[in-house]
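G., the chain you wanted modeled:
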Amino acid sequence: MKFSYEWIKEFAGVSLSADEAAALLTAKAFEVKEAGPVLDIDILPNRPDALSHLGVAREVCALSGQRFAAPVYEYTVSERPGVSVEVRDADACPRYSALIVRGLTIGPSPAWLRERLEACGVQSINNVVDVTNYVMLELGQPMHAFDRALVDRIVVRRAEAGERIQALDGARTEYTLDESMLVIADSKQALAIAGIKGGAGTGISDATTEVILEAATFNPEVVRAASRKLGLRTDASIRFSYGVDPNLTAPALVRAGELLAKVAGGTPESGIIDVYPHPVTDRDIMLDTQHARGLLGVSIGDAQIRSILQSLSFDVSDHEGRMKVTVPSRRSDVVGAEDLIEEIGRVYGYDAIPAAAPVLPIFDTHSWVREDVAVAWDEYGFIRERSAIGRLLAGAGYAEVYNYVFISDELKSLLKLEGLRELAQPQSGEYRWLRPSLVPRLLINARDNLRFTEQVRLFETGHTFVRIGEGKEDARLGIVIATRENDSALFYELKGAVDLLLQRCGIAGAYYDDAAPFTWDAGAVNATLAGRQALIRADDDTVIGFMGAVHPRVAAALKLKGGAAVAELDLRALVRFAQEEREFAPLPKYPSVVRDIALFVEQGVKIDDIVQAVHDADRAGLVEDVDVFDIFLPTGDEKLKADGDTPEYGKSVAFHLIFRSNERTLTDKEVDTAEAAIKQALQENVGARVR
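Predicted structure as tokens:
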């Protein structure tokens, strides 16, 4: 929006250059997109008071530390109005004011008036219309002038369905209205679309000698909706959509009357016509200055706080150890103490507030049912371990996500979930049910992120809400891996991440149990494929998690073309089983020997079976570790064929065998003997074909 800086300086009385004022406004108020004699300023919708030269001048004064002397326009209400005014919808039109001006001579405006309008991008029409536009730019109150001879009365009402009006524009565009729109009418027809555009039937012409000046306040939502429906956006509709101070109508009429007397020889009536059933008054807000200092994080004295508020044209007085701040009605954005504190910080300068790291407790002491220090420290331990797990997964290439705790009807139906807790007043179907598992939302995250990358690795920690009647929430860790292209090894890659997590947590003896039924929540189990599922158990058989490859049906419904694998673990069980003390193991004294073995095996053979066969065959105890580094599964119904007439196999597995002795350096002969025994055992015990 364009503003003349010369015009602003007349109100503000400051010595700042246009560039200096622009820099000040940009730093502390509004973005100035272009400086110079004309300022192009981006006024945000929360500051309708600044949509005028008077408003910007008031802001420049406040930001430069000067007191602003606002012009005073005194008025009286006419006891014998020259035209009848009726407002039928006070909610849509809280105030309607009018002033009759007689004895006008219609003609061109003087040069100074035309130049100011044109500098702000407004075309000059004639002296009467130009004055209404001038007052709108000066004070922020949109106005309209009706030819008094063509209007018998004023009625502010809703439009009738299908009612038509010809707009006061060059093309005389005709608009069809509906009941949601507000119009200014007389006893016969609509004269103007309220807050948007005047009608052609009562426009100012060369024959006009008397006018009815209109200055009203219209409900922003009504104007905004009508403007959008009609596709008609005007300077007036923009201001009314932002919100206009209802206490501005009378001063605007007085100012317009003065200008019409000056440029058109008119004589305003002695009083205005005013329909204002529920006057809006200034607001009193109590401000605790100590709270203001704490919230801003800066030591600013009471005297400076008072000075800043007064520079914003707020009245300030002392009241019971606090400041009573009277906020004028034009500042509709300031409704509470925090708004005042924001204004103080803005004028003081956020750049002048030193940066400091916040000091916050790591847990909310008010959340404990028992006031027991041990309980708080136990929870702190859980939070610390959860953070460590998050860092571990992040180091393994997984990104953390945060989701809402709701799932949609679509996910509930897809995963065949029953007995979920339903919100009494959900915002939408997307947020209807409390999640029983982290898996559904993680799959949505994976789908959305695969648009931008070839592979997605995500994890989340959060609460799940178990079935009705159990009355508790579980802390869970969810992990997902997904790719664009079909990858049958995703399940094993995710298992590697879970193995790493269990190992780093010091959970020895954990194992994977693929025997159904799976005692885990259906939100995870129903998302995965039978035969590619497993419970994660601690060494005492306690279930601490579940993992599986995502079912093709679910993947297809969610458009996960390359497939995915998911895991979900009980966070508290994970922390409970984690070893808090790590035992030191001395570094090996003797070198290791690494041999690689590749096998063809049936698809149903488990990796654990292979590892167990290796250790059973290692009679001399030389195998330190078995490290699986490759698993290949053919797609579809394909089978792997070794060579010649050998049988077909379901998968290929390759692993490192790490041999070491704590007593001596191993010889090649010892390792060869142990390796041969292991290969023989693999062939006999798991039906493997050594490649």
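The chain has five domains: 2-63, 85-275, 283-349, 376-577, 593-690.

Shout if anything looks off.
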